[in-house]
Task: structure prediction
Amino acid sequence: MDGKNSKRAGLILLSLILIFLGRFFPRPAGMPASAMQVFLLFIGTLILWLKIGVHWPSALCLGALAFIPELNFSKILAGSVGSQIVTFLIFTFMCSYTLARTPFMKRVAVWFITRKLARRSPWWFCTFYFMSMMVAAWIMSPTVLFVTYIAISEEIFAMLHLEKGSRLASMIMVGQTMACCLGSGMTPIAHDGPILGLGLYEAATGQNISYTSYMGACMPVGILVFILMLVLFRFLLKPDMSPLADLDINKLTAGMPPVGRKESIVCGVFLCVVALWVLPSLTMSFLPGISKWISSFGITMPPLLGTIVLCILTDEEGKPLMDYSDALAHGVSWVCVIMSAAVLALSSALSNSQIGFTTYIGAAVKPLIAGVSPLVCVFFLILLCALMTNICSNLVSITLVLSIGLPLFVASGGTMNGAALAALVSYAGAFAVATPSAQPLVAIGIGQGFVRQDMLLKYGYLVVVLSAILAAAIGYPLASAFMAGMV
Result:
């Protein structure tokens, strides 16, 4: 066995010992045996997630929870694999996949860059180009969206004869990477990280964070970060923008097909799905009956209805708008689904009152946070999540940070808002922009050869830190106002 395999085997063995024998480890005074068992199960699973992968370790985590005496395995499965978060992800992935197979995303980009203001100068063109990506990312999977925009950016580079690694080409690639990630953190719509964060909060407290509350806090922060990104590009990066003055935008729009039946219906159905997610909280004040009725179906019903409608309706050739088998096989990130199930089950175990982990943690840390400013705690946790998500899965970073932070905030007796923390940590988990290991789209961008890795690292981490400062200073007070009365 070579050194690499020996290290892998050692990590797996260590994790299995922590996961299955944690109950018998020495524990601090006052900590229940099952609380210690769940905590070490979490640590063991985290090691596997970080060093091995998030696939089979997630299934192992689900199975290991069955050995905790206070937990019922049937209820574990019902609250994880059978939860509305998991079914929500499946049907949302399928709807997003069908939308991504239409020219809609390129049409959005073309609409933005053909505005009169976008044609005024190269900097205005870049602003509108990045803005189109950020807006599209509000409702689309970032990786799918990024792949669509790669074709557009490469067409621009070819028209301008930009060499790989040039400062302008690098700026465009860095900008579209940041805009894509930034937009995906600003809403929970079709995004696994924010949905997981909201699910973890619900599992820990039994309360729900509405989509409008989340967006009310995260969208202003995201817009400020977007503006800050442009300022950094303009005054620190300072690329030569003169080649963009010769860009013939008409050539970019020449190959656009007319809007067809399939694109129109798929976009209409997807917008209806989004409306059903957002409308209940928007109409609660003047249409409370209808708002409560729509909310009673949960977050899974809209994408489920959208999937059914897309499978029933046909395109110009008489084919279903959604090929159900194809969307299920290629549109759903099953690794994300099984990890989400494991995370929800683990979070439920950590917050289970019979196990007593959160009670113990709350009593232990309450004296430590008595005189600490909530903004300091929030900034530290948001920054930790943002830095971690650039070296590992955003689902892992969100899970770890909320597992640490939520018990502290819930135990604060109302001086700190756990709902606001959950929203902003979920936002921070989307900002994986600095390293190839952050998420697939970053690796894809670097793989094209147009972006310099040192530039991505430098400006990526700079914007990550500044984003954490804005999220704590502006986002947390906003979120606390939108989520007043929540623990």
Observations:
- The CA atoms of residues 213 and 483 lie 7 Å apart.
